[in-house]
Amino acid sequence: MALKLYNTLTRSLQEFKPADGDTVRMYSCGPTVYNFVHIGNLRTFTFQDILRRYLGHEGWKLRHVMNITDVDDKIIANAMAAGQTIQEYTAKYRKAFEEDCAAVRLETPEKITPATEYIPQMIDLIKKIEAKGCTYESDGSTYFRIAGFEDYGKLSRIDAKGMKAGARVDNDEYEKDNARDFALWKGAKPGEPAWDSPFGPGRPGWHIECSAMAVAELGDTFDIHTGGVDLTFPHHENEIAQSEAASGKPFVRFWVHGEHLLVEGQKMSKSLGNFYTLRDLLAKGYSAASIRYLLSTTPHRKQLNFTFDGLRGAQAAIERLRNFKRRLETEQFPEGASAAAAERATRAIREFEAGLDDDLNTAQAVAALFEYVRDVNSAIDTGEFRQDDAAEAGRALAVFDSIFDVLNPDSGTAATTDGDPAGSARPSGEEIEALIAKRAEARKSRDFALADQIRDEVQARGVVLEDTRAGVSWHYADQ
Ligand code: AMP
Ligand code: ZN
């Protein structure tokens, strides 16, 4: 078992092990909390979750750090327009982010902190960069002089040589094809939040946040840095420049970037009417588990084309797996164990891991699981599958679910912040799964009256249950 990851820095697949052979030190750029996260953001956070879970599965300890960007140009503009402080303005979206992550079962990083709690560390880092001669001051702001850092461009491979001397930007985000000096510390402007510093009153630029937090929490050099591809330039390039100029050491060993999510083949945008938050999809009755499944089963280095058909397919896939799990738990099989079944379960786990070892090829891993489910279902049908084999099969399912985490139905995952209706009267996928499980229990204990009552209740709420040979499947009556 050996995980290989594609490293943007070297443009190659490399076997990954933590530098100290024990704990993976990993940093992920977190959300900018000026709005609810959209499903594109969640795709990136979900791939990071799959990565951290698989690293844990491989036996490494984890020290995963994520920032919450709670001060930047957009936040300041929106907060000022709303007549609020940035703390007041961002509080709601920070809470919403936590709720959304919990709904799609993202494990919480070991450290997740708002950037504004790291202002002293940012100031320290700028002082170090200044001491190396890589800064200059202009109009009350302090800039990073990229001509002073020889390796500038090594991650994105942008050519900084043709840059016009002194060309600089104040915006946190700027053109993708243009290397510029960028602001480390922006001079205070009237009405904007500001902190005292040796460079005058002001606020940090976006890029310095991540460098300062990462280095403070993980050291000058750490194992993995993740984010969406759009962050490669200028954000990650600038993180490298700042951190390496200050320390003189390599900043990150592995840069792992996730491709974007498109909706029906197009870039998601509010003006195209194809922009979805998690809350939008939950309100339409889709389950959080189906969203997690859809986001995680396209390997992170491929673009993911989100469609509603795909989402319904994800729900159907989860149902097949949950039906299978229920079948293992509730059916009676002939006594004993079969060597073939044990061997098949072991092979399923091996193939599942082989998929993930290959740069987190989640599609391959899931395909291995479905092949296994098909084989076991037919072994059950032919009577070859024995009672003790169910435990082996359960073990294979548990390995799958320790990474993908979609098998356990849970209710109450619907997000609630800000009065966004989390769902219509009809039950969520999780609630339906829970009711199906309750009905299966009732049948098992021969309480058929209760079983029928549950079915009637679910149907009255617009859900059709179908009893099939492989278990119970369901769909919304209007889908
Ligand atoms: P932001 O809150 O804009 O800083 O973005 C948070 C994360 O979401 C970053 O890692 C972005 O690269 C990522 N991201 C933004 N848009 C998309 C998208 N359409 N698909 C996948 N990831 C995205
Ligand atoms: Zn960052």
Explain what this protein looks like in three dimensions.
- The chain has 479 residues and is of the alpha/beta class.
- It has three domains: 20-258, HUPs (Rossmann fold), CATH 3.40.50.620; 271-404, Isoleucyl-tRNA Synthetase, Domain 1, CATH 1.10.730; 425-476, no CATH class.
- It is 44% helix and 16% strand.
- The protein has helices at residues 39-57, 73-82, 86-103, 119-131, 206-218, 232-247, 278-283, 288-296, 308-330, 339-357, 362-381, 389-404, 429-444, 448-460, and strands at 4-7, 12-15, 23-28, 61-68, 111-114, 135-138, 141-144, 168-169, 181-187, 202-204, 222-228, 252-258, 261-263, 304-306, 463-468, 471-476.
- A five-stranded parallel sheet has the order 5-4-3-11-12, with helices on both faces. Strands 6, 7, 8, 9 and 10 form a five-stranded mixed sheet that branches.
- The longest helix is centred in the middle third of the chain and has 23 residues, at 308-330.
- The model is unreliable at 411-424 (pLDDT under 50).
- Bound molecules: adenosine monophosphate and zinc ion (ZN).
- Adenosine monophosphate (AMP) is lined by residues 29, 31-32, 40-41, 43-44, 227-228, 230-231, 260-261, 268.
